Amino acid sequence: MRFLDLATVALTLPMALGAQQRQAAAPQPANGVAQTFKSFGRPYGGWLLMAFDSIPANKYDFRPTPVQQSVGYIAQHLEDANYQLCSLFGEVKHTMTAKDSLADTIKAKWPKDTLISRVRASLVFCSNAIAKLDDASLGDELTVDPSGKQQKALRVRYLLLLVTDLAEHYSQVSNYMRLLGLVPPSALPPPQR
User: Fold this and answer.
1) What ranges do the domains of the chain cover?
2) How confident is the model at residue 167 (pLDDT cuts 50, 70, 90)?
3) Class of domain 30-186
4) Which of 5, 24, 32, 131 is spaced 20 to 30 Å from 159 by Cα?
């Protein structure tokens, strides 16, 4: 080896090893991946609750076109979807009540306060389910039975579906709000400090 090559190795090797040691010693957040799903879902869940709260009760039957869902229908759908998804990936299963088994069209007509409180409860259920997950369990293979056909799926799939569903329905409700002349929560100016 030439002197210049040897000198370069002698100078860079300790720096590289030191960087590796610092990088390896840096603490990683406990269950950072699992908790990332919670942090991604949090704004959408909060915005959905604020949106439902700011839409007047007499507009819960609003739908832009006859084939679209009404505001009330979206709220009852979210509650049901949240419980279904979070029961799949979580260790606690949601216990259905007699009201849960009513037709979606009937639940969509419930009073605004009832719909909001039920959506809120489903979001709390999901938050608790995510809090109990650890990163190692995200790759667990689950046997699920969507639409009567058993199949295998990774636990993380249902976390992705939850966050996607919340984002999709927030976008939907935001568009409805704009059509009603309302400003969606995410478009409001930040509070003055």
Assistant:
1) 30-186
2) very high
3) mainly alpha
4) 24
